[in-house]
Amino acid sequence: MGMRKRSKYFAVSTLALLSLGTITACGTSTSTTSPPSSPAVNTSNQTLNIGLSADPPTLDPAYSSALVDRQVMFNLYDTLFQLSSKNTIIPDLVKSYTVSPDGLTYTLQLHQHVKFQDGTPFNAAAVKFNLTRDMQPASARHSSLADVTNVTTPSTYTVVIQLKKPLSPLPAILAGRAGMMVSPTAVQKEGSNYPNDPVGTGPFEFKSRVKGSTIKLVRNPHYWRAEPKLSAVTYRIFTDPNVELTNLQSGAVQIVDTVPPQQVSSMEQNSNFTVVNHTGLGYEGVYLNVKQGPFTNLFLRQAVNLAINRQTLVNVALKGVATPANSPFSAASPVYNAQEDVPPTASTSEMKRLLSEGGKPHGFSFTLQSANDPVTTQVDQIMQSMLAQYGIQMKIEQLDFGTLLANNEAHNFQASFLGWSGRLDPDQNVYSFFYKNGALNASQFVNAQADTLLNQARQESSMAQRAKTYAAFVQIIQQQVPYVFLYHQNNVFAYAKTVQGFHYYSDGVIRAYGLSLS
Amino acid sequence: MAYAAKRLVTMIPVLIFLSIIVFSLIHLIPGNPAQVILGQDASPSSIRALEMQLGLNLPLPEQYLSWLGGILHGNLGRSLLDNQPVSQLILQSLPVTAELAVGTIIVAIAIAFPLGILAAVYRDRWADAVTLFVSTIGISVPPFWLGMIFLIEFTVRVHWFPSSGYEPLWSHPLRNLSVMTLPILATGFREAGVLLRMLRASLLDVLDQDFIRTARAKGISGWKVIFHHATKNALIPVITTGGLQIAGLLGGIVITETIFSLPGFGSLLVESVFSRDYTTIQGTALVAALAVVVVNLLVDITYGLVDPRMRK
Amino acid sequence: MHPNETGSVVGIVSPQPLRVRIGWEDIRKRFSLYVGGVMVVFVLLGALFAPFFTPYSPIQQNYSAVLQGVSMAHWLGTDNLGRDTFTRLLFGARTSMEVTIGSALLGVVVGVPIGLLSGFYQGWFDDLILMRIIDALQAFPFLILALVLAAMLGPGIRNAAIAIGIGYIPIFVRTVRGQVLKEKNKEYIEAARMTGCRSSRLMIVHLLPNIMTPLLVQITLAIANGIVTEASLGYLGLSAQPPTASWGSMLQVAQGYISTDPLMAIAPGLAIVFAVLGFNLLGDGLQSRLNKRQV
């Protein structure tokens, strides 16, 4: 996944699970946020340095696609809904909300007296401005809001969102980048220069940035909740995760957003640091192009899927810092199905049968395109040698991220190694991957039954019900193999013991708001 | 002056050729900025819409001419990725690379001068042979590998130097120097080898010339001859050929900057190639080329001043 | 690229009393040539006959023997997939030589004729167009040019050779053109011209042999340079594709193990230094022979 691969992945603590059900329940479920209990005036002068493994391409949520962007943006912006550290979706800038019984109308009541960092008020008009901006075709948020038909503002602090079809993941979507509220005044004033002077309502405001080096945020003194404890947060960008770790050890940064797999165990033994290591929500795997030879043939797709031993792959390439996969839903997902996620075990006779039914009893060859970062390079070669045992010759072609994306969009490949960082709501991890003509459906997979199940899950309000629907869907995917699931990435951080108040959030983003230094 | 003016005029087509070559090459790389910005989950319609917004749907010659038009008005355009003015990106990154380059040259001079003179004085003796051999090793060590070795030894094993965290020289001088020391040494050793070989050769040429022999015949001591007469005369060709090394130096600095996470010109160029940020690539390539061209021009003019026969 | 390193040996008053220097002069003169030559032969032998020097396969993985240190079985240890590092270095030499010799060939095949013609005929096309294009190509940092070309053509040994080779063309054009300008007014050429020799014959039969030595020097130095460039491209993942061993990609992987297994980074680097040093010394040696002949 190129630069994105090293970025942060969504992940969920094992506490997480079914709590999502509370917010997706239709009807009249409401909830409110209470302000934090300690409104003490802050006079501290602490700067926290956070190491990032990639340079965020943009700080404008409407155009952000790299995951690392969110590390900064979640501290700069508040969102309409938010992910709690208990892995539930709760209102944030929204004070309370209702959903109509048909699931097509969401009515949001906003917090009052919230101001953007430029002093302009946050209100319903600002929400409408933001959602409209995100719904433009050229926005990176366009596809996640594609089912929104209309946004209206019946009063200063009330927003009504109308949907084309029921969309149970909407609050989860609005807890992500689509729900980040930017200052309309700043956007109008700065125009396309906005990303270089971003303005939100968040606990920290943008101060300065040197591309490829640092991003500096300072405390927002007028924050609508209690003032943050830190006076400033500086992000330092490292192109190499090993260098990043060295900087944690030398004290140049206090938190790092990634730890290379081979260093995890030694860091865990170091008493000066705390390592956070949880299974993420994403997956890594290989698209098989079902419209291009040799993978038009179902048996050959099944053969490739069967030949790869995921456990060995994870042990060797990732030093065990990942989970072998066979489905899109990891143990962190609210619809996790342990049985379905167990990888298949190859047997020589079964491989022989598949290859001969596929008309290639002596094996065949194909080309895998992939990114060229060190972990991917290892995974590529391990898969290559596993396939070679059965006479399947896999040629590796490593490309930079731009070329990889272009080839995927044009379906110009036989097999393509590209994973997904994962989102909290299961819909966002499968729908556009396997739905006919979906944006992420690089395999060109079409299956009417799968499409029906994917739509059905969007209408179902209870997570338990959705889990059943997705289980049926996963069976189809496992039988048809448009994609070979390899493993679920782990979400790994390390921080110095001087950092106080650290909470792990399942999306892998470091919230600096509650942090302080001792 | 007329010579300089003529040379300057002939540089214009060079730069235009270069910009056409760069423009054509980068548009031949698969992928485009709209895809990179919107990422893997963008729908084709979103990508087309953003292409339109960025003006990437226009015919290529039109895109090129509008960029060229901007250049003629002194405007390098804005990054397609984040809309920062390209000139600002360059101004942010240039000091890093300039410091690296200047530091490299200082290291190179500090090593090459004493050793080069030593080698020339003891020409064809063991001191000369050893120096020459060491300098050949110097030019054979890839700077980026030397950088890795320095990282292993001086930051990972013994924590003498931080491995990153660049701050500008004027605002944090100590921090800056501690961060820049290793990269400067990594590139400096190679350039020292190159410079030493040039200096030695040039000194030997001068030592063979008549006026030196006259000086020696007058009984002036060997060392005095070297310092007072030979070095001064040997320097001119060294400076001029040394100038030509700048282009090569810039190329070598690219990966060194990557290894040490330095936000310099090379990193900017490599990053913008990977993100298909066309305007930034064109702008940085143009400035890099301009730097090389100007140095070449200065070299030629120096030649012209030293040796009037060169002025055609 | 490299100016006269050795100078001439015509009488110089030594600042020191005369010493006995029997044989030393001779050895020193030829040191570069011989030592460089031997090193280059080593590299070429390693590249050509890699499988004969090692019992291991360069691509066969062994997960029970990953990241082993130096031992009798594995002279330079093993890598993260349990492959013998010494074996991969030998096969890496093969990759390196394929790319660099290929690129030098491309540079020669395209650059030499252009250099010959432009130096021989000169004129406005040479002066205003050709040399300006060459200037433009040379004004662009070489590695970045190779990077852009490799990204455009796709990764792989052949494309890396093409990318580096294109970067060489201007160097060879300049070398040959410069030599032609120097030679073409010399007596032997004038004499041949008088006898009614055709231009093409003049260039191929008379000019070309006389620029062979500087050309050879340039090729040697270009290969030395190419080894580093190939390693840089490999480091960026743009040269040979896995599982093919290449020194640059070995360094890329090694970077992840810098603090735990530094040998993985040190070994390929030393291999690069050895090969580059060999070609540089050989180039120096050839250069000094050339100078001697000219004196």
Task: Outline the secondary-structure elements.
The complex is a heterotrimer of chains A (518), B (312) and C (295).
Chain A: H1 2-5, H2 21-24, E1 47-52, H3 68-76, E2 81-83, E3 89-91, E4 94-99, E5 105-110, H4 124-135, E6 148-155, E7 158-163, H5 170-173, H6 184-190, E8 204-210, E9 214-219, E10 232-237, H7 241-249, E11 255-256, H8 261-268, E12 273-279, E13 284-288, H9 298-307, H10 310-317, E14 322-324, H11 348-357, E15 365-370, H12 374-388, E16 393-398, H13 401-409, E17 415-417, H14 427-434, H15 448-459, H16 463-480, E18 483-496, E19 499-500, E20 516-517
Parallel strand pairs in A: 1-10, 1-11, 15-16, 15-17
Antiparallel strand pairs in A: 2-3, 4-5, 5-7, 6-7, 8-9, 9-10, 11-18, 12-18, 13-17, 13-18, 14-18, 19-20
Helix pairs in contact in A: 9-11, 10-12, 14-15, 15-16
Chain B: H1 2-28, H2 33-38, H3 44-54, H4 60-72, H5 86-121, H6 126-140, H7 143-157, H8 173-207, H9 210-217, H10 222-259, H11 265-274, H12 278-306
Helix pairs in contact in B: 1-12, 5-6, 5-8, 5-10, 5-12, 6-8, 7-8, 7-10, 8-10, 10-11, 10-12, 11-12
Chain C: H1 24-48, H2 85-121, H3 123-139, H4 142-153, H5 157-183, H6 187-194, H7 199-210, H8 212-235, H9 247-255, H10 263-294
Helix pairs in contact in C: 1-2, 1-10, 2-5, 2-8, 2-10, 3-5, 4-5, 5-8, 6-7, 8-9, 8-10, 9-10
Give a summary of the structure in a few sentences.
The complex is a heterotrimer of chains A (518), B (312) and C (295). Chain A is of the alpha+beta class.
Key words describing this protein structure:
heterotrimer; A: 518 residues; alpha+beta; twelve-stranded mixed beta sheet; four-stranded antiparallel beta sheet; 16 helices; 20 strands; 28% helix; disordered N terminus; B: 312 residues; mainly alpha; MetI-like fold; 12 helices; 78% helix
Beta-strand percent range of chain A: 15-25%
How many beta-strand elements of chain C?
0
Shape of chain A: globular
**What structural category characterises the helix and strand content of chain C?**
mainly alpha
**Averaged pLDDT of chain A, please?**
89
Unreliable spans of chain A: 1-41
pLDDT < 50 runs, ≥5 residues of chain C: 1-22
For the termini of chain A, the CA-CA separation is 37 Å
**Rg of chain A computed from alpha carbons, rounded to a whole number of angstroms:** 23 Å
Write down the Rg of chain C: 23 Å
Hey, roughly how much beta strand do the residues of chain C contain?
Answer: under 5%
Counted by DSSP, the helix tally of chain A is: 16
Could you name the CATH topology of chain C?
Answer: MetI-like fold
Biggest pleated sheet of chain C: none
- Oligomeric state: heterotrimer
Distance between the termini of chain C: 21 Å
CATH homologous superfamily of chain C, by name?
MetI-like
